[in-house]
Design brief:
Helix content is about 30%, strand content about 20%. The chain is an alpha/beta fold. β5 and β6 form a beta hairpin. α2 crosses α5, α5 crosses α8 and α11 crosses α14. The longest helix is centred in the middle third of the chain and has 15 residues. About 50% of the residues are buried. The chain binds iron/sulfur cluster (SF4) (2 copies). The site of one iron/sulfur cluster (SF4) has 16 residues, from α13 and α14.
Length: about 425
């Protein structure tokens, strides 16, 4: 693991604010890992806030809901923060008061079975909001009984502070969400892992008797599933295996909060917290944003610009994705929006590998990034598979430590896609 400059000071003490409801949203039909949804509305239809507008019959998917009330203006290709472009439902708002959802009493919650909770989570379209976007209802239905639940409150990416604010400002709600997930899976051993640079969050959760707070060093990538399990339980996940293979479920705090909102308040996943930050902005903030809102609205709300950004990233600087337009919308996995100045984003020319092994020493999952990179550049996909490319957690440390500025992660990502095609 490596120590990075955190740069969280821009927004870590900024209380959560609601971004004004946008007049238009662009909701991609794919915002999750799995099958792309089919639209269930057509151009000209009137939709209500929270109404399901897209779904599909498939094993792995999560439905999409209207994040504003209004009219379907178009169903068209549109910029997508991960895929470049994808089909999206465009909604034009009508400005009318929005529908409220049906809140459940504590007695009603207590009567819910695990199957009821999974159904609510599926119907609400909840996915892993730490960036993975894997549908949460599937994680709540593991193929074997689980013993340990770990809540990921590490938020180890530099600049990002939305999870930190959520833990401080919505502590009770997150705690209720943790209890729901634990009850759904029959788990008694529960930990919440928080880095030592978030003393307020550590203090806030220390009063709850149902789970243990594990204070973690603020190193990167402390929030990776494998690192959390290793540092909290002292257990390693064998190569090619997943946390559930060793009886563990890891859930990000933002996902837990979404589960709370769905079960207690009947609210589908229609908005999320986003850290909008970087030295180019006059007013970095932690914003509650309706899904489908173009990032331009967020930038305007946190402006004015002190300097023209040379790079705009959705996510953090290590794992986030650079964007080519400010029309791209916030989706379920977008936890950060980072505007980088020329100084912060300076790109240096790539040189030849000098065989220093810094990337090997830095890789938190024990890979040889330099070897995978060389094999990937020659399209030797079987070799990249043998070198364990699929185990890469895409943390970006190899890029960060490489003195030759080799684009290791980019070629490893490509190798992972190719390896997935090999039987
Ligand atoms: S190979 Fe993957 S896991 Fe290892 S340092 Fe590079 S990005 Fe991180
Ligand atoms: S860190 Fe860069 S230069 Fe050093 S071995 Fe890895 S790829 Fe080569």
């Amino acid at each position: 693991m490596v120590k990075l400059t955190e740069n969280k000071h821009y927004s870590e003490n900024k209380a959560i604010e609601q971004l004004p409801v946008p007049s238009k949203v662009y909701l991609p039909l794919i915002q999750h890992l799995g099958k792309i949804c089919n639209p269930e509305v057509k151009v000209g239809d009137t939709v209500k806030f929270g109404q399901r507008i897209a779904s599909i019959e498939a094993n792995v998917y999560a439905p999409i809901h209207a994040s504003i009330s209004g009219t379907v203006a178009a169903i068209q290709d549109w910029p997508h923060p991960v895929l470049g472009r994808a089909k999206a439902v465009v909604l034009e708002g009508n400005g009318l008061p929005e529908e409220t959802f049906s809140v459940k009493s504590k007695q009603e919650i207590d009567r819910l079975s695990p199957a009821d909770i999974r159904k609510i989570v599926l119907d609400a379209g909840i996915v892993g909001m730490g960036g993975a976007s894997f549908p949460t209802h599937i994680k709540l239905n593991p193929p074997r009984p689980l013993d340990v639940l770990i809540i990921n409150g590490a938020e180890c990416e530099p600049y990002l502070t939305a999870d930190s604010r959520l833990m401080v400002e919505k502590t009770n709600e997150v705690a209720e969400g943790i209890a729901l997930i634990a009850a759904c899976l029959g788990i008694k051993e529960i930990y919440i892992g928080i880095e030592d640079n978030k003393p307020e969050a550590i203090k806030a959760f220390s009063v709850f008797p149902g789970f243990k707070v594990k204070v973690l060093k603020s190193d990167y990538p402390q929030g990776g599933e494998k690192q959390l399990i290793q540092n909290i339980l002292g257990k390693q996940i064998p190569r090619g295996k997943l946390p559930f293979d060793i009886g563990v479920l890891v859930q990000n705090v933002a996902t837990v909060y979404a589960v709370y909102e769905a079960v207690f308040k009947g609210k589908p996943l229609v908005e999320r917290l986003v850290t909008v930050t970087g030295s180019c902005l006059a007013n970095p903030k932690n914003l509650l944003v309706r899904l489908g809102t173009p990032i331009k609205n967020l930038i305007d709300f946190c402006g004015p610009l002190k300097e023209e950004p040379v790079k705009i990233i959705i996510g953090g600087p290590m794992m986030g994705i650079a964007q080519y337009t400010d029309e791209v919308p916030i989706i379920k996995s977008s936890g950060g929006l980072l505007l980088m100045s020329e100084k912060e984003a300076k790109t240096i020319e790539e040189g030849p590998c000098i065989r220093c092994a810094a990337c090997v020493r830095g890789c938190p999952v024990g890979l040889m990034p330099c070897q995978i990179n060389l094999a990937s550049e020659k399209s030797l996909w079987q070799s990249t598979k043998d070198y364990g490319a699929s185990d890469c957690i895409e943390c970006g440390i190899c890029n960060y430590v490489c003195p030759a500025n080799r684009r290791l992660l980019q070629t490893i990502k490509r190798a992972k896609l190719e390896v997935a095609k090999i039987k």
